[in-house]
Design goal:
The protein is of the alpha+beta class. It is built from nine helices and eight strands. The protein has a domain of about 70 residues: Arc Repressor Mutant, subunit A. The strands form two sheets. A four-stranded antiparallel beta sheet has the order 3-1-2-8. Helix 2 packs across helix 4. The longest helix is centred in the N-terminal third of the chain and has 19 residues.
Length: about 250
């Protein structure tokens, strides 16, 4: 299993756990709200970001009524205004941690993020300090069943033609990675093929990882989980190596 595969596997497992808690719906509602307000339209046909948010909502099995309510509420003048922000810092043992958030109260969010770093003996750094450690890429997860009668090899070629620089097959899904600038191109390619991904988003994938023993790795993951439990936090990325031993422990 490649480094990319380990990363995407753990993100999918985490996504499934979030779905059980309902947190994934909260994230999607925020994304819908931001998409409508920034795109200036509640019509997905003319708002690519909203179209993507709706696609992710469907992939997470969000009921249509929930989506419609979120879109309608996002268009209300008195609706919440969310601001997207990021925080960068280091956890114990020099593990880099990149936090993405959507918030209607920056002071609250930065206070919570700083407190978590401090609780786990980490340090909140300045924005931009970790950019060199992560490569921002588009990640598309497409179930085998979504491609219908298309030949899998031909489908891979279509993905590459649409901008994917790497395609992996695992656990009954295709995972396609695109450079940041080709994210929209691959999204359009899938729309042309009438294929709806299970999820499509931008992720910060580490250029290199740091391996720790299982005990210290679990401590880092506990810290990351604490960030993810915060309602304002939408994504957490890190450069901890997901070793086979650690993955085995997590599966137990």
């Amino acid at each position: 299993m490649s480094g990319h595969s380990k990363w995407s596997t753990i993100k999918r497992k985490k996504g499934a756990a979030d779905a059980k808690r309902g947190k994934v719906f909260t994230k999607i509602i925020k994304e819908i709200t931001i998409a409508v307000k920034e795109g200036g339209s509640a019509d997905p046909d003319s708002n690519p970001r909203l179209r993507l948010a709706i696609s992710n909502a469907k992939g997470a099995n969000m009921p249509k009524d929930n989506m419609d309510r979120a879109i309608k509420k996002a268009g209300d003048k008195d609706g919440a205004n969310y601001e997207e922000t990021t925080y960068e810092g280091y956890g114990p043992h020099g593990i880099a941690i990149f936090v993405e958030a959507s918030t209607d109260n920056i002071k609250r969010t930065v206070s919570n993020v700083r407190a978590i770093f401090a609780k786990y003996n980490g340090n909140l750094g300045t924005n931009g300090s970790l950019e060199f450690l992560f490569n921002r890429q588009g990640v598309f997860t497409i179930p085998y069943e979504a491609i219908g009668e298309l030949d899998p090899d031909e489908f891979e070629m279509e993905l590459i033609d649409g901008g994917a620089e790497e395609v992996e097959r695992e656990d009954e899904v295709f995972v396609a990675y695109t450079p940041f600038e080709d994210f929209g191109n691959l999204q359009k390619k899938l729309e042309i093929l009438h294929i709806e991904p299970e999820s499509a988003n931008l992720q910060r994938i580490p250029n290199s990882t740091t391996a720790l023993d299982v005990h210290n790795s679990k401590s880092i993951l506990n810290m990351i989980e604490k960030f993810e439990e915060d309602d304002d936090v939408t994504n957490v990325f890190h450069n901890l190596e997901m070793t086979d031993e650690l993955l085995a422990e997590m599966d137990e």
